[in-house]
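In the laboratory, one determines a bound structure by crystallizing the protein with its ligand and collecting diffraction data. In a computational setting the workflow is compressed into a single prediction: the sequence and the ligand go in, and a structural description comes out. We illustrate the idea with magnesium ion.
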Amino acid sequence: MLKIDGVSRRFGSVTALDDVSLRIEQGEFFALLGPSGCGKTTLLRIIAGFETPDAGKVTLDGDDLLSKAPNRRPISLMFQSYALFPHMTVAKNVAYGLERERLPRQEIKQRVGEVLETVGLSAHAGRRPGQLSGGQRQRVALARSIVKRPRLLLLDEPLSALDKKVRADMQLELKRLQHEVGITFVVVTHDQEEAMSLADRIAVFDSGQVRQVDEPVALYERPKTPFVADFVGANNLFQGAASGLDALKSEEFGMLPGTPLTELEAGAKALLAVRPENVELVDESAARGLRGGVLDVSFYGGVSHISVDVPGHPKPVLVAVQGASAVQTGAKVRVRWDAQDAVIMAVDQ
Ligand SMILES: Nc1ncnc2c1ncn2[C@@H]1O[C@H](COP(=O)(O)OP(=O)(O)O)[C@@H](O)[C@H]1O
Ligand SMILES: [Mg+2]
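The predicted complex, in structure-token form:
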């Protein structure tokens, strides 16, 4: 439905977007994920029409978008700050866009009523934004965005202003809402957990370029580049060379088990990534595994995180276990994993 082809945008010496191409399907919940400053907002602003690319094409349902003024595009952009009118009631805030389009009074009333029902704010229609909680203000902003029935709703860091608990509720809410209204959502976030929990597919950005587009589970289990492996979720990374086998050849540790994601020539520079939940702690007398000492054990309720100092490795190896940990700080252990639970990827020279 939305096609972005070779879009670039420079600001002076800064390249905000560098030849970005993406396809977003109708009805998708799509996330643009990446660290701060990687160009996510710039891309949303280009789609919405508040920014013009230096090169590239953007089409929606086959129509060229870039030649259309922002208000002629069937797109809503929900800003990071919700930009609600403080002196207007919730209902007035939501009705505003429809009134500007001069829709019949009766239709406006009906649509505002429906959308407030959808976001669970019918009882608050007469309040002003200042009398609402953060989560409720967020819902007003959402209601205002969807009441116009756009083809595409763009959300820039929609949940970043909310505290953790409210954010978790709103994540569920956003998903339900998207399902219910059937509008295609493109959400920008720097929070990888948020992107994973919300989106059908995620595009990972780095320095203005798309590094990988995939479903959350694929992104997590089969990162294609070192950047993605490092940015999406916690990972233990080992440098070395491809061996031609299901193993990475490491200078410090010899052969480390892992599965190459692509055909790699033996000797090529490579990186092995293994998730903390796939690393097992075994007794120091075990036959195999990297020797180390437990630096720290942190209990998080459902899981414990154990960090192990492995001499020769620049960072502690992270291990995640269900529930409480059986080992304690200072214990001598070995860490090991199976080849099928670690991935080996090429490193660009
Ligand atoms: N209007 C602008 N003028 C100059 N530089 C800009 C402008 N907008 C964005 N940039 C720069 O472009 C880069 C990407 O910005 P942005 O798209 O806001 O990133 P993100 O949303 O991923 O944090 C940053 O280096 C930012 O400073
Ligand atoms: Mg931004």
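The chain has eight helices and 21 strands. Keep in mind that any predicted model is a hypothesis to be tested, not a measurement.
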